[in-house]
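NAD(P)H-dependent D-xylose reductase (XR)
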Amino acid sequence: MPSAPTIKLSNGKEMPLVGFGLWKVDNATCAETVYNAIKTGYRLFDGACDYGNEKEVGQGIKKAMDDGLVKREELFIVSKLWNTFHDKERVKPICKKQLEDYGIDYFDLYVIHFPIALKYVDPSVRYPPSWQNEKGDAIEISKTPLSVTYAAMEELYEEGLIKAIGISNYNTALLLDLQRYAKTMPQCLQIEHHPYLVQQDLLNLCKELKLTITAYSSFGPASFLELEMEKAKNVPLLFDQQDIQAIAKKHNKSAGQVLLRWATQRNIAVIPKSNNPDRLAQNLDVCSFDLEQSEIEKISSLDKGLRFNNPLNYGLPPSVGIFG
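Predicted structure tokens:
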């Protein structure tokens, strides 16, 4: 059974370089999908409150543990703090609810999903809350500063409810600001990262800050076509890009494997997903070959600064539309 190599976080914790992303995994098949992914060799599972499938993920994990496929300490389970729970007094209760949904005692990594605070929505009213207020008729911004939310994350870390602190969708300015108030720097930054959106300045700063990077949407527009996003329809799929296809043919690998290796070879973790058993195994096996430096540079040269996961897509005002 193949397994992914690990990368060491700044606090010494080992994190698999290749994981399984749980965004858009259907609730009806989620438990079985997670179980099969564990059977295939996946050990990192990247979830979130907003994905709405955490109970089902927990069911798949429990079945795998009950069947003796894996022990809890062999798994690296990631979840995220949603925007409507940024108020200091909301962070711990929602983290505990999410842990209960998974049926576990701690998260290996817990991530601030977006650097955007929204008005609280009680889980009894709507869960997951999505972007709208309790009435479901508008997006309401909260005045809670990121520094307050981050301090609550540090409390979770100190209490052992989470074993590493993560942030997501932060740009360089937010990272520099975080340095001013963090008692414990985060161990991981999760960002949209693919050849159409390289964000090299942000990568350079993360290296300087000893921040491990996890890339989401590694296949670029492919992740957003089913959302009917016009921007995704107006650029060539990375799978079909001529240079990527040529590199894949040379290494006898799929275009998807080349895209994932482009990231992992630069010590950037990836979290692809697939329901196809063959592709599941292919995605996990992306560290068994090396790209030439010239090939990595050629892929990076496709950069268009093209972001698909922008808050403006969800109805937020332009003032919160710029992030890394």
